[in-house]
Amino acid sequence: MEQPPKWYLPVAIIALLWNLVGCAAYLSDVMLKPEDIAKMTAAQQAMYNARPAWSVAATAIAVWAGALGSLGLILRKRWATPLLVASVLGVVAQDISLFGMGPAEATPEAAAFAIQGMVLLIAVGLVLLARKATAHRWIA
């Protein structure tokens, strides 16, 4: 195994922290109580209630596989790559549900497009990093 460049470990640690924030957001979302949902705007409630179970599962895959894949990068393990690929697929499925299948009254706000775009770019970037790390034998 080759020594990775100095920037590799800090990037992998930031990736793990990023994905752990996603895990916390997922947990706070699935643990919402009815009174919390009642405080949402009508559009937010419509969007929340219209989500199919597979979309929630895709979000879980995106964040948990992303966190484990990032941990794999830190530990310099080859299994990071398939987990990070699974994370990207989870993000894509989540985005399809969020932006392509919701009811008309549940149109996402502009900020949601920006945030989800950033999430997708980072997820793809982590897959590219894992592939580069494999190619350069930084992970095994």
Shape: elongated
Could you give a short account of the major beta sheet?
Answer: none
**Averaged pLDDT:** 91
Distance between the termini: 7 Å
Helix content: over 70%
Order of helices and strands: HHHHHH
Uncertain stretches of 5 or more adjacent residues: none
Class per helix and strand makeup = mainly alpha
Determine the strand fraction and express it as a percent band. under 5%
How many DSSP-defined strands?
Answer: 0
Helix count, per DSSP?
6
Primary descriptors:
single chain, 140 residues, mainly alpha, 6 helices
Characterization of the model:
The protein is mainly alpha-helical and 140 residues long. The chain has one domain (8-135). 76% of the residues lie in helices and 0% in strands. It has 6 helices and no strands. The protein has helices spanning 8-30, 34-38, 42-50, 53-75, 80-100, 110-135. α1 runs antiparallel to α4, α4 (53-75) runs antiparallel to α5 (80-100) and α5 runs antiparallel to α6.
Q: How would you summarize this macromolecular structure in one to three sentences?
A:
This protein has 140 residues and is mainly α.
Topology record:
Blueprint lengths: L7 H23 L3 H5 L3 H9 L2 H23 L4 H21 L9 H26 L5
Helix pairs in contact: 1-4, 4-5, 5-6
